[in-house]
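new request in #modeling-help
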Amino acid sequence: MLARRRLATVLALMLVLVMALGATPISAQSNELHYGIYNNVDTLDPNVTTFSSVGIIMMQVFNPLVYQDPLGTFHPGLATAWEINEDATEYTFTLREGVTFHDGTPFNAEAVKFTFDRIADPETVSQLGISLLGPYQETEVIDDYTVVVRFSSPYAPFLNSVSTPYLAPTSPTAVETLGDDYGVTSVVGTGPFRLESYVPNSEVVLTRYEDYNWGSEELFGMSGPANFERIVFRIIQEPATRLAALESGEVQFIDDVPELDVARLQEDPNFEVIQIEQPGHGYSLMMNVEREPTSELAVRRAIAHAINKEGLIEVVFNGYGTPGCSALTKVMFGYDPATCDYLLYDPELSRSILEEAGWVDSDGDGIRERDGQPLQIQHWYRADSPLNVALATYMQAELAQVGIEMVLNGASQSGYFDAVRAGEHNTQGWWDTWTDPDGMRVLFHSSNADGGTNRNRYRSEQMDELLAAAASTANPDERAELYAQVQKLAADDAVMVYLVDPYIFYASVASLDGVTYLGGGNLPYFYAASFSG
Amino acid sequence: MTDTVRLNLPASAARHSPSRRLLLRFGRSLNVLVGTIVLAIMVLLAIFAPVITTYDPVQITPQLRLRPPDAEHIFGTDDFGRDVFTRVAYGARLSLQVGIISVTLAATIGVTLGIIAGFYGGWIDSVIMRLIDVMLAFPGILLALVIVAILGRDLTNVMIAVGISSIPVYARMARGNTLSVKSIDYVAAAQAIGAPTGRIMAVHILPNIIAPLIVVATNGVAGAIISGAALSFLGLGAQPPTPEWGIMLSEGRLYLRQAWWVTTFPGLAIMITVMAINLMGDGLRDILDPRLRL
Amino acid sequence: MTRYLINRLLQAVPTVLLVSILVFLMLHLIPGDPAEIFLGERQTSPEQLEIVREQMGLNRPLHVQYLDYLANVMRGNLGNSLNNGRPVLGEILTRLPHTLELTIAALAISTIIGIGVGIIAALRHNTIIDTVAMMLALVGISMPVYWSSLLLIVLFSINLRWLPPIGQGSLDRLIMPALALGLLSAGSLARLVRSSMLEVLSQDYILTARSKGLHQRRIIFRHTLRNALIPVITILGLTFGQLLSGAVLTETIFARLGLGRMYVEAILNKDFTLVQGTTLFVALAYVFINIAIDVLYVYVDPRIKYD
């Protein structure tokens, strides 16, 4: 039949074409790294962004004033020395000489002042950067290579802040020249790689900065130009595809490896899995203390005791993770191990707490009532995240066992924001990653309670004071003690339920060496990386 | 012309009443019979799921996670340890509703609009078809979000959202075929006699254009279930842990490589349902289309 | 015909305008503030929110926003994306070629396979070939695109290492997504073609032609296919339009640049300028496709006339 023959010919032609193309190997050249990155990019400017992916990419393009590795230990970066005054209101930095930005502008005190002032300026709309600046007051230029940064109140976390790419110095010339286009089409830093091109939702391409010679010998064993000539960040949001890209040789490094595939990759000699305990805050449940019935301490305590975290880890995270105990993950400075005894999994205790508070299942439908009102809470989550869906499903089932009805409200991003910012929720999920315990103010400080990040809507003078005190002393032991009190208070008031302390998973080809994981594991750094053999 | 149509019928058929003849033609086609039986099974499954199955469709049992199909769980278990067969059975009810109701909605409105546009032509055709163009160009996601905002999140609104987005297909098809058909002799003849327009449309035009429409409609059932599941990403539709084939299909794709059964069996269920409806649709076409002989 | 075409082109203007206005209004109707979405889950002061809203031009009354926008469009300026600041026209044009190539390739695959299988099934009606063909078509219809995509990736990228699983710009990156999309519509096309052909094959002028002894192949291509084509053309046109703006899942799974993905994200971000710009393109595309279909009707079926 003519049609059939025509079809066969076309198919045969296609097959030949495919084979001809397939003859070209997919694997990249050995001086080029392809990174399959999970998250999208909002802006290229690390001083403005809210995205962790931008942090990762721009860590290669910018240099921080200090490096932090491991957490709590600081090394010289663009600053060779620093001094902090007694009450942590003044930081004096001695800057490295002979450093130039990618556009030739010399790096000096002016650039540092320019960067910080710009971040603090509300017109810049910086998000992460500005919160890391804390109670920033001003930067004073003493001479070309000395600056003093002043704060209106004591601010201990500042060294941590300047170790992030979000406060990394940027070229004043570039900002002034590009104006609104800065961060949209181009950015200029002092890092070992420079930005070559950017296609939104697709890729960011970096090329080696050949004049780089101020690398940290101490940390990376080299100070000259990087090994890789090019790094291409391919944005691949679908987990299965990201994995396929690694396994097919299309990329050599990926982040956010699905837990389901970890075991398989670990067993494969061609690949290496990097598993890091995540710093900051794990997955948790925020409880709105201003809305019934979560406004009742008894109900919040009952919820906290009702969720089996081991089971949750098994089901949702494929067994990878440890039960959450505190708003800080276990690797964090300031984490108090005593928190693991505070709100244990004990469904019997949940039931008795609720009974005592008058919540009884009088009509036998499995849901408790009081004064004719069922014990019903509204849980809001983003429906486009399978993880959120799984967490919601699991928690709903657990709470049903103690007689609480969790009504699930899945929504798109905008619907979700609308609802939770207005406080229409009883519970919502939260996840965060910081490298300094001061990050907890995001969760508990009253200034964030009105539609901000403190979706617990928790206001406590005592908590505010503790958080402020802990941020103002530079003495680590004092800070740790104060943060222990913060964690105890949060548990006493049963503000949140801490579900899981997760792992960060990266996967790479086995031949990739020399990758450093800065930022407590959040920032893979490729300055000293290369393919062996 | 009409004589040649009757040539192939057995002599005995001429002695039966028209309705009896229809039934005979229907029963004679094995395909249609199979289709009807399978669909009946699906419907029964939908109604009697709690009786047929032994497991709880929503109970989470972590220790039974991701078991491959075996004697105790013939379709295996999913990531929450729930029995897949039970969930497929319970899911029949919702999924059949989503598939069939949204397609019926879209087809009814779309075909009506299409026939009117094609039949009258002129400015009526222009206005209707431009409105259809507008509907086509309007992004489905936005429509779904608007429906969520105004009407809320439940499953009925999924059917409305999917239904409305599909109207243009039926309208365009119906119009296209109507244009072809309206110049046929007996249509013109009917008009000449002065038969009422409605009757002409229903009795003469509709049967002549119905064949491709039925095919498109039956094709559309699977698409409707799958589109409905896609909308769950916007929070529209069945909320977890309610079993529904489209959602099971979509969520199960994370496990495609490690636990293929989680997503495959709901997919098969959809496929079998669509097949059954298709076969029945063939039968429907045979009955209604005066030109087609088998 | 010329008069008809002019008429249709004139009608295109109010149509596109209506779509544009409707999308604008609906986007405002759904909950969410583009400024809030832009700022994300970070500590935001009300002042910051205000600044962003001001920068996005959201504080002006609705009709002012729209008319301003329209005036700019007339001058050829589609504005900048609210979310990432890049020019809308540039963003669309970057993705247009990739979307077009995927659409055309997918359409070609589905046409060749769909029509081919449909014809074969119709000619071998009620035989095993018919049944097998229809079973395959059924699989194509009920198989969701993420399944077929993932299966293709596992086979051709991971196991065989023949084709890269992501990206765009070269033929080897086009094949799998085009196959995934093409096979999807091939199934429905096959069923449609078969049904149409069966219908026409049983009509009298075919019997007459057969009785005259004409070669079967000529009968098919001269008489049958032409008349069966009306519904097929309709569906092809609609599929083309759907592929242009709706191949979101395929684009996401294969991490391809595409209009569909951009459009959906823009809507979810309430990125007014990007949504409006893309809407204009999509609406124009649909309008022209439909004009093309209507013109083709006339050539295919001589019975169709427009007054």
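bot summary: The longest helix of chain A spans residues 2-22.
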